[in-house]
Amino acid sequence: IMSRDVIAVRTNTDQEEVARIAGRYDLLAVPVVDERRRLVGIVTVDDVIDVIKEEAAEDMLLMAGVRESDEETGSGRLLVPAKRLPWLLVTLLGGLGIAELIHYFDPLLRQEALLAGFIPIVMGMEGNVGIQAATVTVRGIATGRIDGSLRRAVGNEVFNGVVLGVVFAIAIGGYCLVRFGHTGVAMSVALAVVTGMTSAALVGTLVPLTLRRLGIDPAIATGPFVTTAMDVLGLSIYLTAATLFLGKFGA
After folding, report:
1. How far is CA 84 from the centre of its chain?
2. pLDDT in the model for residue 58
3. What is the 8-class DSSP label of residue 146?
């Protein structure tokens, strides 16, 4: 009396994969076998809970661009700043790119100063959508939910980005039109929001999936990388749209 098709893990299986298997099949214990399928031990559910907590804490640090806890002091006080430096450099490069964009479009902003007032809104909305999409994607990768449905995962997030973009484009563009009576700026903001939020959802989904395929922990994708990328892309879309619309519509 036995079951021959036993769900088990090898002695060298990653602990995160063990936790994923236990959660997927609702197991109270996971058998551990060697290369000859001989039982060498078990991983109990309390061990799985510890692993989940550890991996969740690690992902939270990686999402902020930090690889290890600040409390770790064994390798010297300069180790923590050194590990955070690369992701802050990403943010610095993005900021310099934004400064160059603003300088390039300086004649446009001088012509219509109202455009500058909506820059934080456009960049903030797109950055938040990108972070949300990346967080959901990283979570889906960690739980194994995305493994068999990559196209569906990307499609769902892009659909969410389109819907949210249309809603907020109407809201923000309508506010600009009613409050300031400026058709060109209103249409520029509306187009930038809907296009940028859709792009942010796509980028926030594809970046973690791409990093995973390259063998890099996808949790790193969230945080500085996605937000910086979306800031540059969002501002480019907004100011380009403004250049097109302000030529057609007056104040």
Report:
1. 18
2. 66
3. S
Q: Where are the alpha helices (DSSP H) in the chain?
A: 15-24, 45-63, 79-104, 106-111, 114-117, 119-143, 150-180, 183-213, 224-248
Looking at the DSSP bridge assignments, the partners of residue 32 are: 9, 41
Dmax of the chain from CA atoms?
83
Q: How far apart, in whole angstroms, are the C-alpha atoms of residue 67 and residue 204?
A: 20
Tell me, what's the pLDDT at 251?
Answer: 47
Give, in degrees to the nearest 5, the angle at Cα 157 between 156 and 161: 120
pLDDT < 50 stretches in the chain? 73, 251
Q: Are 19 and 141 in contact (CB under 8 A)?
A: no
Residue 199 pLDDT:
92
Query: What pLDDT score was predicted for residue 187?
Result: 93
For residue 138, the number of C-alpha atoms closer than 13 Å in the C-beta half-sphere is 27
The pLDDT value recorded for residue 148 is 56
Q: How far apart are CA 75 and CA 178, in angstroms?
A: 58
Tokens of 177: 């039109």
Q: Per residue in 60-87, is it b (16+ CB within 10 Å) or e — as a string? A: ebbbebbbeeeeeeeeeeeebeebbeeb
Q: What is the pLDDT of residue 94?
A: 87
Which of 245, 216, 244 lies closest to 86 in space, CA to CA? 216
DSSP strand E in the chain: where? 9-10, 29-33, 39-44
Question: In this predicted model, what pLDDT tens digit does every residue of 217-241 receive, in sequence order?
Answer: 776 656 677 888 888 988 999 999 9
**What CA–CA distance (Å, rounded) separates 108 from 240?**
10
